[in-house]
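User: quick one, fold this
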Amino acid sequence: MKSFSTSPFASLSGLRVRHFLLLALLAATACTASAADPTHIVAKGMTQTVTVKRVPYTIEATQAPYKADTAANANNAKPPCGSDNGKVTPKFICTSLSITIDGKKMELPEKAFTDLSDITAFKSPSFEMGHWLVPVKGGHESAAYEVEYMFKDTKLIERGYLGRVPGLKWTKIVWQRDKY
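Assistant:
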């Protein structure tokens, strides 16, 4: 004999859980780097603005094997992000970075990304106080880092190196800002 639930929402709640898990899986796969090919990283998805308008974005990076003696790396006066001030040798260095939000290509000078090493993930862009913020994560363990690009329209204004300080809550702080 087959029994039926007396609650009309019993099957609906199971559907909601499955729907939520599917959306979470799609969001996670759209924003993380592919472990199979660390030299080409792409994130695509939808993000929301303050006015609840959903807009598409694409972030794409290409990395090449890191060689400390190459001209591109020698032009950087400081060690690459993700090297723990030169204590850790990165495996890859960023050679190109392309960010498109709502069909508009963001302007990125080469010096704004050629010191990024071992990029591991992109976070979904956010729109705050008239600016697009695009976080990029990279490095490993003690050399892990997060930078956040700030755009006004399509022009890069600054790049901040983010950190976390333990307290009652983990608070996001900017350790250093590069103005453009």
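User: anything notable?
Assistant: Residues 10-31 form the longest helix (22 residues).
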